[in-house]
Amino acid sequence: MATPTSAWHRGSGTLNDETITRIDGWWRAANYLSVGQIYLLANPLLREPLTRDHVKPRLLGHWGTTPGLNFIYAHLTRAIRERSQSTLYVTGPGHGGPGLVANAYLEGTYTETYPDITQDDEGLRRLVRQFSFPGGIPSHVAPETPGSIHEGGELGYALSHAYGAAFDNPDLLVVAVVGDGEAETGPLATSWHSNKFLNPATDGVVLPILHLNGYKIANPTVLARIDDDELEALMRGYGHTPHVFVAGFDDETPASFHRRFAELLDTVLDDIAAIKESAAAGDESRPRWPMIVLRTPKGWTCPPVIDGKRTEDSWRAHQVPLASARDTPEHLEVLEEWLRSYRPEELFDATGRLDADIAALAPEGTLRMSANPHANGGLLTQDLRLPDFRDHAVDVPAPGATSHEATRVLGEFLTDVVRLNPSTFRIFGPDETASNRLQAVYKATDKVWNAAYLPTDDDDHLARRGRVVEMLSEHQCQGWLEGYLLTGRHGLFSCYEAFIHIVDSMVNQHAKWLKVTREIPWRRPVPSLNYLLSSHVWRQDHNGFSHQDPGFVDHVVNKKAEVVRVYLPFDTNTLLSTYDHCLRSRDYINVVVAGKQPTADLLTMDEAVAHCKRGLGIWEWAGTEVAGEDPDVVLACAGDVPTLEVLAAADLLRQHVPELRVRVVNVVDLMRLQDEREHPHGLSDRDFDTIFTTDAPVIFAYHGYPWLIHRLTYRRKGHSNIHVRGYKEEGTTTTPFDMVMLNDLDRFHLVIDVIDRVEGLGSRYGALRQHMQDERLRARQYTRSHGEDLREIRDWVWPAAAALAEASGTPLGTGAAVETGGDNE
Amino acid sequence: MATPTSAWHRGSGTLNDETITRIDGWWRAANYLSVGQIYLLANPLLREPLTRDHVKPRLLGHWGTTPGLNFIYAHLTRAIRERSQSTLYVTGPGHGGPGLVANAYLEGTYTETYPDITQDDEGLRRLVRQFSFPGGIPSHVAPETPGSIHEGGELGYALSHAYGAAFDNPDLLVVAVVGDGEAETGPLATSWHSNKFLNPATDGVVLPILHLNGYKIANPTVLARIDDDELEALMRGYGHTPHVFVAGFDDETPASFHRRFAELLDTVLDDIAAIKESAAAGDESRPRWPMIVLRTPKGWTCPPVIDGKRTEDSWRAHQVPLASARDTPEHLEVLEEWLRSYRPEELFDATGRLDADIAALAPEGTLRMSANPHANGGLLTQDLRLPDFRDHAVDVPAPGATSHEATRVLGEFLTDVVRLNPSTFRIFGPDETASNRLQAVYKATDKVWNAAYLPTDDDDHLARRGRVVEMLSEHQCQGWLEGYLLTGRHGLFSCYEAFIHIVDSMVNQHAKWLKVTREIPWRRPVPSLNYLLSSHVWRQDHNGFSHQDPGFVDHVVNKKAEVVRVYLPFDTNTLLSTYDHCLRSRDYINVVVAGKQPTADLLTMDEAVAHCKRGLGIWEWAGTEVAGEDPDVVLACAGDVPTLEVLAAADLLRQHVPELRVRVVNVVDLMRLQDEREHPHGLSDRDFDTIFTTDAPVIFAYHGYPWLIHRLTYRRKGHSNIHVRGYKEEGTTTTPFDMVMLNDLDRFHLVIDVIDRVEGLGSRYGALRQHMQDERLRARQYTRSHGEDLREIRDWVWPAAAALAEASGTPLGTGAAVETGGDNE
């Protein structure tokens, strides 16, 4: 299937009465089928008088927004056909599901997608019955709905999704309907500013339609209750040219308001075409893109009054206006009148097929919005051209001999990714791309910026075109990236670890979308949503407690295991290997947490690749095991800072408790810890037991909240031996080592943990235990008097690693060696 | 300490040159001390030439926003003194910590609060040294900072906090500085609309100052780079009257720009006074409140160019402009020049005390913004007058004999709370108060609404004054409530369970704030943040999968145990008892998840109170235990839907496996499951083992993600016997029973779990197991053909509960009986 061609034509001026009649017919048909879906089990065309048995026992769904969505859809259909304009329809009020299903059915796409929903009486019966019905389809514009990239379950993201879809699709028009309820949300309120990040020459166009139907669930809406001059000022302030359109509040004939709206749509689309022409001719000024304010009654065309209460043009029309349609004859009668008001006999022929004249309104093939391939982005996805990440490997003569800022080197790799994929890969970030040290990418690209420039901007890497998209809104970054991915492109979101929680609920929605699309055969896999979380909990040096929260991982692992991957690369080469893997994947949410501060390089690239492929491994070079014998204790680690503390603890133990057999295990793919029955990456019990033993104490130094390790390993045989250290919500603006001490994750405390947990050590090593306490005190006192960590602590890595390796008899540079089974793609 | 009195005076016109000089002195002093805090260890007044030893080894903090914050503070100080206007300063760019600390020090509050930070050379040395220093204070406007209710760690909530503080404080002016970085966030973008929810007669005033310094961390800001006409349109669109003020970009003298800003401030404050007067006189129109756009250079007054790169008026001034001040003589020299540019010798006397003339700028006592008692809300908190929740008890002749919508009855209780506390209690919700069935409160109050009214609004419970605050923005609800609580008032946030994740990151920030304030003696406890999460995962009937997420509990339990409480009341009386408890508490985050659909009443009020006091308990009436003998299996439950399924399963087991000794345990206070060493509510091991046994299989039906139960109980002896059923991310728009079946939480599956886990049952009860599978199939088939659940499933509760109780020989209506120790306040 190819992308539809497009031309940004001006209107052709064919707005005759016949066309207007067709638009009205389409609208009535869509409204009729929407009401039908909400209420009817059978008798979809009212071939017989309506009885209670035709009505669903549970009436679930939302009528209020639907007629407005259908109105817009009908009009766009006309315009698209005339202009051959590839158009994607983003339904902000996604609970208007019946409307979008109805339109897809009218366009024929629904039947092509679901052949049992035929274009006849029986197909109509199935269509109406399945909606919000057990075993049927959900009530929203869900993945099941052809033409949708936006379910609209949680409100707020219609515009950011729309802009994400428009980026790098210069021929695509994205019409985004924003409900006036949604417009009150924070994410939506800032997403209007997306127009400062859109390049009119190389991106597509977003046409926002703010649908003011005046009410949300139980209240009027803010934007419907401010003066027109305020509303227009707001839209101008957002950088748009607003066009206010009002219909449905008086006796104006449908022919009249349809004509007015069709004319407005032609004006707006002509204006858009003019802007595109101008941009193509080199005009670099920021366009004041048109947008439409559409004021209609909520529940437009439903019974004005039900049970003596105003329903049309009221919040009462939000969900199901006739709640007792099955149980009271009065409601049943009103329902039948309501359905018949659309004159179904004019809309469908004797076999139940849409009237041919009305059907002629629709464009053909992929120009139908419900069949636009951008809404099934996997169809259009091309693999990224990836450079060989090994080319960016850092040289590791031995563990800890050198150090790098891992994300800075990743930036070099990403520079190549940008160069090789000049129009299908973007990096999103809330003003943190450089802070997270990816600034090498500016060698290859700029930050897209379509607001004003100053002469002093010369060296700031701002440009009308750019692969980096930065706005101080995590919501925008997430929403744009989602829209970009769902339309088949690639990208990553680089963010401070703590503040990625801002998009927790968006991740939920995206994970749910992916979970469902994986179960729908016609939905093709899309590129994964890749996070790079840096400036993490242990190194938020400038900020402190408010910026410390490693809990995003906890949040994400509640989602379906098939969809979620979590990686904690601890050095530069493992980060490179991990990210290469993520960028190749599909349909996942990949969470990568990585440090930006200089940290010890531990594995050569070959070792890193092997380690990442296994996801975890025993580091013989760092331990003091004797081949063939079980270790006395396992020191496990996940994350860059915990890994260094574990290595330091192993070094201390080697020096002070030479007879102790210590095994060091590093976990880079966190999901390996889970049971293979719980997660596709999960280790078998046999492998887990081999690595962690079933009886030795395991001291696990973990990057985040310690309980997560228990949650992941509770089924394991040796679980009760696992003792986890991690972030326990203690922090402030202080030194890196003080941070780990505040949370008992430091090397000295890990040694104490070993003494306390390995049988027999406590009695023999009381002095060492005290010494470790003293070392903690000394470290803290030094820090508090000097304002920095002891140099010996900062500079620990190389000599200790070397000593470890020498003592173990394992050549420096030898990585993990235990092979493990299972799929960790 | 009493609230300062206020009068909304017009200006007194005393803007003479002397005052202007004082303002400039204050500003220089605040700037000087801010730079000092970022850089200096010692030599705070440059009594000797600056050397590297005077400079901190780690330079942490943010200069960029600070001089602007100081500028505003200095000017407000002048105006407050003249007008005796109680004023709270909300610092959106909270990383401007050094500025707020400096001002609190200049006002004397800092020394009053921390007596070792004296008003002399030594005090100054301590002041500058402690900032961002181990063992010192954090870099932000943290709880440690007098006068702060807003740390500004995560950006976006300055205005919603400010409005929350202003609600019901009619004499309070809240000046909220919004950074232009913050202004890009979603929550901030919608929070401008808060003015539609503020009553000018009975609430205080928020004066937003949008501080455009042009840059964020590494980029220009959107609002600084749109045309003035767009920016002003935006502010007018938000309902404000904007005043644009520009300074610092040219050679204008400080005397000149100070005079201009002082005059502007007088104009604005006079306009506010006029609006207040007008409102007091009965004018009900919505005021177009003034707001100020303050354009200054970022890092204003720092070295214009450092290392050949523009620094002042650039993003490079964001954090620490002279990163190598300690390590390069050039930077050290520039730093000394920079410090001396403020002419410290004019600002402080020979002993290090602030020049008396400058000091005279400040108002006295609680009129000092750093001493405003609203910023330490616990000082002003009055206990809620609570009605007796028992008056709203529902009659429970026997478990399951009746049913109620729990939240609807809670609404009746809240109605009384509203009546008894007409100005200190509010209910916040994102348009879901009625959907969550609390609408009884409209008998006592209305929804506050200060946007336009229509004649048709008569029965919609909208009013200029109202205790219910609804906007479709969870961010706004959370932010307003936080502001309201932190200034010492009470409230709750009613929200759909799934969408409370929208505020995950805000909860993090609030939990961190509470955690730290609990460690600060002068911070007094504030009322708890109470959630009522309804329309929960099992009963999002109209919406389905996108609206199903019970993971907020998982998120919250990562925060400090002292701060977090989680309750899962399963019926009306337990909900009433729980909520009464929450409304009395302080300094907690209380998460209450409760159903809104009709559900079986199980406990009488006396039983409910006893059960809630224990937090969990054995229900003898529902089990088939024999006194004195251990049970064969424990059926545990938490949450309304799981509780009913467990009771049904117990009933099935009683019928089909009569010899099985089943214990039924219900958990209402989830934190009881945790170890007493982990959580203040945690059960002792002894109590836990008594209730759950150490060897019997425990089938635990839990409301949310099943892993949470493992995370809470992993230390328990019998943990490996616990088998949890819960929501595993399977759902759609379907029937309630289909939902529990999709997640294997249904009664039939629980019976299968018992057969599979109790030794010996599997071999003997293969036929029952198959029968349960058949029942699942029958239930599903019925649902898919009829669109509703089998009536016998819906109507199960009463006969089954009666049968259970009769069989157990325990009188109906007898609740939990095992006493447990521990504090679960």
TrEMBL record, chains A, B:
Record-annotated Xylulose 5-phosphate/Fructose 6-phosphate phosphoketolase C-terminal domain positions: 596-798
CDD domains, per database record: TPP_PK
Pfam families: XFP, XFP_C, XFP_N
Domain (Xylulose 5-phosphate/Fructose 6-phosphate phosphoketolase N-terminal): residue spans on this chain: 16-379
Co-factor(s): thiamine diphosphate
Top-level taxon: Bacteria
EC number, as in UniProt: 4.1.2.-
SUPFAM superfamilies for this protein: Thiamin diphosphate-binding fold (THDP-binding), TK C-terminal domain-like
Keywords, comma-separated and alphabetical: Lyase, Thiamine pyrophosphate
Class in the EC hierarchy, top level: lyase
Annotated family: Belongs to the XFP family.
PANTHER family in UniProt: PHOSPHOKETOLASE-RELATED (PTHR31273)
Protein name: Probable phosphoketolase
Organism: Flavimobilis rhizosphaerae
